[in-house]
Amino acid sequence: MLTLAVLVPLAAALLLALAPLGAAAARWTATGSAVLSLLALVSVWAGGGEGFRAVTEVPWIPTLGIAWRVGVDGMSLALALMSALLFAASAAWPMQLEGARAYYAWMAFLTGVSIGLFVTLDLIVFYVFFDLSLVGMYFLIGRWGHGEAQHAALKFFVYTLAGSLLILIGIIVLALNMPELTFDMRAIIDSPPLAAAGALPGLVFLAFVIGFGIKTPVFPFHTWLPPAHVDAPGPASAILAGVLLKMGTYGLIRIPLQMMPETFARWALPLAILGVISILWGSIVAFAQENLKRRIAYTSVNHMGYTVLGIAVAGSALGSETARQLALTGAVVEMVAHGLITGALFLIAGAIWARAEDYHLPNFGGLAGTAPRLTGAATLAAFASLGLPGLAGFVAELHIFLGAFGVYPWLAAIGLLGILITAALFLRMLRQAFFGDLPYERRGFTDLTTAEAAILALLLALVVLIGIWPAWLLALIDAAAVIPAIGAGG
Amino acid sequence: MIWALAYLPVLAGLGIWAVGASRGRTALLGGLATVATLLLALIAGGRSGRFDWSDVLTLQAALPPLAQAVAVLVPAILLPITLFAASHEEARGLPRLVGLMLVFTGGMELVVIADDLVTLLIGWEIVGACSWVLIGHRWREQPPGLSANFAFVLTRAGDLGLFLAVLTTFTVTGGAEYDALGRLDDWPLALAAFGLLVAAVSKAGQVPFAPWLFRAMDGPTSVSALLHSATMVAAGVYILARLHPYISAAPGFGTAAMALGLATAVLGGVVAVRQVHAKKLLAGSTSAQMGLMIATVGAGYPGVAVLHLVVHAATKAALFCAAGTVHRVTGSFDLREARLGRALPVSAGLTAIAALSLAAVPPLSGGWSKEEMVKAAEHAGLFWTTAAILAGGLSAAYATRFAVTAFGPGDRDEASERRGESAALLCLSGAVLAMSVLWLPWAHDAVSAWIGAELPTGTRLGLIASLTAVALGVLAGLRAARAPSAPPGQEWLGLPALYEHGVIRPFHGLAGVAARLDDGVIDLIPRGVAALGRQASGQLARLDDDHIDGLAPGAARRASQGTSRVWRGAVGIAVQAASALAALAAGVGERLSDIIPGGSGRLAGMAGADLRRLQTGLSHHYYTLLMAGFALAVGLLIIGG
């Protein structure tokens, strides 16, 4: 089933690359493949189970312990489901494109590799998907972006590729230190190598943190993000923020946290501090941005900071077990929530670009009159992003802070300031774009079309659902099963 | 069922907004939803509810008598205000206004029924968000938007205190229910209690958070009437009263509450006495009155504070309706241009009742509850009593001045009454009058027994001093009303300017500097690494120039082969450079080096077609980095293997 979820979009990409389809047919092929993939994942979810489920294994290079291994636990299933949904939404998002067929081919390709990354249980396959996702995004930004799209795309590519190389080093060292060479994640999680203190585990950990930190991104490795977002087309931005950033934090949990828990615990505090710096820095810098997309982009740094704080707390081996579980639950919910919320925000930014070809906030104002639906969606998404209770972001942030306060109370208290600054910056954005006087040149600004409104409504309905009744998502994530038992050796 | 108290008005409000309707229909629908909420509040007493939010957190609701009194109060005040809004406010956006006031009420009811800190936090912030939408209701104008943002951010700053209380309570006890709060002691208790106090005073518009209440005056009058009586500011007082049994043991809590409350009561009084803007006068008064209530909680009489909250809600809502009428007739809130007594005698009479109640003149209800608060202060000591009496005198002065300047006999002798406005005023002032039965012993004994309020006993001397202060205040107010005063030069004693220069502008500056640093300095990391990588592998790059050149200009077919050769070359050189150690690990390294080109080769092949369409001038960066990284990889392999 999981293999199908990966192969269907990849097959669709192949079809789109070869068959001469029209723009509309291409759009529906890409969307359809994402929906099919989503359905496959839903069926796995419906099947229930504990730990890694729906596992399939096909040998590939047996001598090196590399195989096509797929399987999901609650965390990766939640992320894969969110990704598939966001891909369906982004592919269905109406666009005026040149070379639409190629665009949708890359979109479908990206769907396949992204879902593949979350469902694979083999480190080498993980690495391959990690890099392939860069390729897909590189072309989406570079070819269909605007402004200095090519430069932004290249910066994104080079920067995250440099990070991925560090990850590769780490993966190889991990595998070599297993009693028997294997890249099977389950095996490595079950008997984590490199448990001893020393320089090597620290270096490997550092390689992972920098590698995944670039992708996440955490301060100070985040500077590739704003240009990539600003110049990317709306749906590509939604994918970049909603799905690709999650690969960094997912990797951080799956590999360093689960596969080298002792080392992680030793370095948890610096990582948590990095998270808090990202929270504050991301929000402060976002506040100063006058470009709509740059502002949203920097809030991603802020939100990923919450996630990293949660992950660091989960792996700290300090405080109570409940606190660590809460922090990890919060971190995973933050990933899902941020995917939905920021995905929606970037689609909204795309809708604004399609109508005005401008992101400079002072050039806007008063859109609430001409575009009430757009205003409603943007307001809801902005409040969700600033963590208003009743919406998904709050669930995540509350859990993260509840957990973090039990382990690093001072860091949690400082991080709380982020909540205040995000409130200020989002309200400022709403006022600048939607309220006050309507500038003359925006007279013709039209509201969301039915298709756009329906897609946003779908994403935001989930945001509300998770906000009001998060129990089902928390049960799915099942953070208790993710956190490794630390203490035996350290 | 108890949850319906919160979600029924929310859903009804959203429905009214979505459907939209004429004035009459909006009033009717809004009224019906409000009445339904009121009935629910009446029958839900004593009930409780649980909702499993996650495996660790359960949302809990309960409605003890003290809470029920407030739960009934909120829709009871909303009802006349809905009537007022339907008659008074602009038709454009009216369904949104009425609908969102219902949502606001739902949020407030969630605060009221909350029986654990997480539920409280949810309701608390929803109330704040609703106030943002409502203050910014007239979004086409600039000031309401700015004020709404100011109000939300300032109150959210206070909310962080509530967050801290939740975090502390949960961390120490493993639960967030109110009872868990009672299990705290020592510093966690202090942290939770003071966190709650900060949250409460920010919502209740106390010093130093008071300026947001002034800015909130940019909202429609109906919103002010609701926000200053039964919701938002009331939430601050209510929650301190409700949680008093759990947190009063925290060291210094009572003193801090009294100090903040009475400081605001006196300062707010001074602010109100000097104001000529009708709504801002009332806003200063709201801060002052909430201050008295918070001080009463601090003195140990939460029940008394809630009783005054109820009386004050009807009083203040009535006065805001009166201020709205002034604005409709004169086109401004400037009290110096009002004096509508001849033109609107009925409104004048009804306003007088509410104003005298606010002035705490016996035998009106406000007089009774205020004297109870002064008695409570007497229990705390002479200093606090003096401050409370002074605050009482000030409220007599500004209330009198408001009534006389707004509705004293003046030159204007004709203006139209509006039935909705008058009816709302009649209901509210009638309620103020009716509650005056509280002066009678059987009435206040019955009420205080029902909500479980302990009534303080006072001295005769205290009563005389207090009533003298009221009398002097009334005289001063009458005198001040005669002479037209100039508006004060600084709003709220300069506090807003302090925020502007001390917080907002510096933060804008800081953010600007951070943004420049981000672009200029932090971005040097990747640029520096890239430059280093280029230099360090310059040798490598030159050796392999052939391969790279072969790649660049659109050789899709050769791409994968080319890359493989680059890889092998890089590996080879790196291995040579560390030949002695490499010998040990060469086998592994070679096997691995075969895998990676496989992957990247496929990648390059797929990318080839599109690569040609892109400018490739910078791609050598990528390749040099790739090689530098791989050299590093091999190095580590050697150590690791």
From TrEMBL, chain A:
Record's keyword annotation contains DNA repair: no
Protein's cellular compartments: Endomembrane system; Membrane
Top-level taxonomic group: Bacteria
GO molecular function: NADH dehydrogenase (ubiquinone) activity; NADH dehydrogenase activity; ubiquinone binding
UniProt domain NADH:quinone oxidoreductase/Mrp antiporter transmembrane: residue ranges: 122-422
Signal peptide positions on this chain: 1-25
UniProt keyword rRNA-binding present: no
TM segment ranges: 34-55, 76-95, 115-141, 153-174, 194-214, 235-255, 267-288, 300-319, 331-353, 374-395, 407-427, 448-472
Enzyme class: oxidoreductase
Documented EC number(s): 1.6.5.-
Biological process annotations from GO: ATP synthesis coupled electron transport; electron transport coupled proton transport
Main localization category: membrane
This protein's UniProt keywords: Membrane, Oxidoreductase, Signal, Transmembrane, Transmembrane helix
Membrane association type: Multi-pass membrane protein
One Gene Ontology CC term in the entry: endomembrane system
Its job: NDH-1 shuttles electrons from NADH, via FMN and iron-sulfur (Fe-S) centers, to quinones in the respiratory chain. The immediate electron acceptor for the enzyme in this species is believed to be ubiquinone. Couples the redox reaction to proton translocation (for every two electrons transferred, four hydrogen ions are translocated across the cytoplasmic membrane), and thus conserves the redox energy in a proton gradient.
Protein family: Belongs to the complex I subunit 4 family.
PANTHER family (alphabetical): NADH-UBIQUINONE OXIDOREDUCTASE CHAIN 4
Protein name: NADH-quinone oxidoreductase subunit M
Provenance organism: Histidinibacterium aquaticum
From TrEMBL, chain B:
Residue spans crossing the bilayer: 6-22, 27-46, 66-85, 97-114, 148-170, 190-214, 221-241, 253-273, 343-361, 381-402, 423-442, 462-481, 566-588, 621-639
GO cellular component terms given for this protein: endomembrane system; membrane
Principal cellular location given in the protein's record: membrane
Topological relation to the membrane, as annotated: Multi-pass membrane protein
Domain NADH:quinone oxidoreductase/Mrp antiporter transmembrane: 114-390
Compartment annotation: Endomembrane system; Membrane
GO biological process: ATP synthesis coupled electron transport; electron transport coupled proton transport
InterPro entries per UniProt: ND/Mrp_TM, NU5C-like
Assigned keywords, A-Z: Membrane, Transmembrane, Transmembrane helix
An example Gene Ontology molecular-function term: NADH dehydrogenase (ubiquinone) activity
Chain's role: NDH-1 shuttles electrons from NADH, via FMN and iron-sulfur (Fe-S) centers, to quinones in the respiratory chain. The immediate electron acceptor for the enzyme in this species is believed to be ubiquinone. Couples the redox reaction to proton translocation (for every two electrons transferred, four hydrogen ions are translocated across the cytoplasmic membrane), and thus conserves the redox energy in a proton gradient.
PANTHER family, alphabetized: NADH-UBIQUINONE OXIDOREDUCTASE CHAIN 5
Protein name, per record: NADH-quinone oxidoreductase subunit L
Upper lineage: Bacteria, Pseudomonadati, Pseudomonadota, Alphaproteobacteria, Rhodobacterales
